[in-house]
Amino acid sequence: MSITIYHDVRVVSVAAAALDASDAHLGLLVLVGDSRSAARRWVLQFFAPEQALVAYAVASSCYFRKGAAAWKTHRRDSAFDAAKWITRVRKAIAGAEAINEALLDRTLTSCGNLLLEGRFEFEGKTIREALKAARDHACIDTGEPSHGFVRVYGPDGVK
Question: Among 1, 65, 123, 141, which residue has the fewest nearby CB atoms (within 10 Å)?
């Protein structure tokens, strides 16, 4: 059985006005791989207001308890537990990097050393459109990952 290995966790923030929303939204970006492969990729795992993102972190922590996920330095033991996952996400939220609103109307934009672009049906559309769709998806299907809306490129990841 393969498990998901988490290598890095980052959070980006988008101002409420940029999405015509009442609250700022945060995107949980994770660098993940599989225990059977050395390949890694960045994904937008969840996109929602801060409170919903923390709730998602708590809900998804069950994967660490059940052994379906692990942190990169704890592959063979259970030292990385659910509480540590939640703490990592909270620290990433505290250090969230804002996406410049002026860059949201591009099809490819950067935030720190990460690049974001639309994915699947959002390829060629603006980042704003892709993030609004990810936001709407999180509102409709709370707890469902937001993988299908934005492609993320960054260090140590494969395209």
Answer: 1
Tell me the average confidence (pLDDT) per consecutive run of 10 residues in the chain, 159 residues long: 86 94 93 88 92 90 80 61 90 96 92 89 88 76 66 79
Note the pTM of the prediction, 2 decimals. 0.88
Domains of the chain, residue spans:
4-153
